[in-house]
Amino acid sequence: YMLFDEFANKIQQAISNVSKLQVFNDKEFQKALKNVRDSLIEADANVEIVDELISNVETKMKQVKIPKGVTKTQMFVKLVQDGLTEILGGEGTSDRILSAPQRQKRIMFVGLQGSGKTTTIAKFAKLTLKKFPKARILLVACDTRRPAAIEQLNILGKRVNCETFSGEEGSNAEWVLDRALKYSLEKEFDYILIDTAGRQVIDNDLMNELVLLEKNAKPDEILLVLDAMTGQEAANVARQFATTVRISGAVLTKLDSDTRGGAALSLNSISGCSICFMGTSENLDGLETFYPDRIASRILG
Ligand code: GDP
């Protein structure tokens, strides 16, 4: 798959037009800025953040002292790349999240139903085991209201060779969490990955349950799982979650089906959340780290 292919094609076109120029005068510069801006807007990026990026590039281009051996057009491309990196979240955080298991590390996964939360937990377990083959990982089924969700976590857990902890039918999320944490201490698990209730929409019930689980689990990280195919709406969902629980990073799923990149391009500015992983396929190998600078250069080709 090509990451955000529709957007990437447009912005690469804008960049390649600039690169071919013999003279990069003010008229060409304005044209290039407009093309970059259009490609971002068409990608469903948040307008305010796009205008900020464009005006930054414009100012910097006028102020910057271009080093010897670097052309004006190369400088322009670099400034666009820096701007893109910035709106994709600046510094990446996945290294911290996927750190070596030193002690019981608790990671809570939150997100709307259908966002890919359960799949992401299994993928995350698999990715962790690939990096740290001896890690002992416990999956905890705290989405207790939907028997299908518990069953799915069980099945996925088996596929990635991880034990799943779930309560008996009818037990509530707090109870399951409490038992699971005791169990994980006893059995010395390194990672405790906690699945939480998913809903179709954000409501008080959901948020209250998450607040309670956060309080009881004292997680090291809370990862918010978002469906990239919902575009800018994913950023709005993130903003609402982020006002309720302490989101430490976002996992953007289904990037293999997202051609525009609107969620990725708007998330950080709208919600303050930064992307740390991306889902790139339905199968359990399809989770990759997300480093804004690398992603920006991949998009620009
Ligand atoms: P949950 O309700 O949030 O737990 O969502 P699920 O984990 O059940 O995922 C919902 C659907 O999205 C399933 O059919 C998954 O296979 C699919 N899915 C999840 N992540 C990805 C991804 O990165 N790419 C693609 N193509 N499909 C995904």
UniProtKB/TrEMBL annotation:
Q: Where is the Signal recognition particle SRP54 helical bundle domain?
A: 3-88
Q: From the Swiss-Prot or TrEMBL record, state where the protein is found.
A: Cytoplasm
> What's its catalytic activity?
GTP + H2O = GDP + phosphate + H(+)
Sorted alphabetically, the keyword list is: Cytoplasm, GTP-binding, Hydrolase, Nucleotide-binding, Ribonucleoprotein, RNA-binding, Signal recognition particle
Organism's domain of life? Eukaryota
- Positions of the SRP54-type proteins GTP-binding domain: 104-301
Single GO MF annotation: GTP binding
Class of the enzyme per the UniProt entry, highest EC level? hydrolase
Q: Does the keyword rRNA-binding feature in the UniProt annotation? A: no
Occurrences of domain AAA+ ATPase (ranges)? 103-301
GO cellular component assignments: signal recognition particle, endoplasmic reticulum targeting
BP term (GO), one? SRP-dependent cotranslational protein targeting to membrane
Report the main location listed first in the record: cytoplasm
Q: What is its EC number?
A: 3.6.5.4
Could you say which protein family the record assigns here? Answer: Belongs to the GTP-binding SRP family. SRP54 subfamily.
Its recorded name reads: signal-recognition-particle GTPase
Q: Which organism is it from?
A: Galdieria partita
Provide the organism lineage as a comma list: Eukaryota, Rhodophyta, Bangiophyceae, Galdieriales, Galdieriaceae
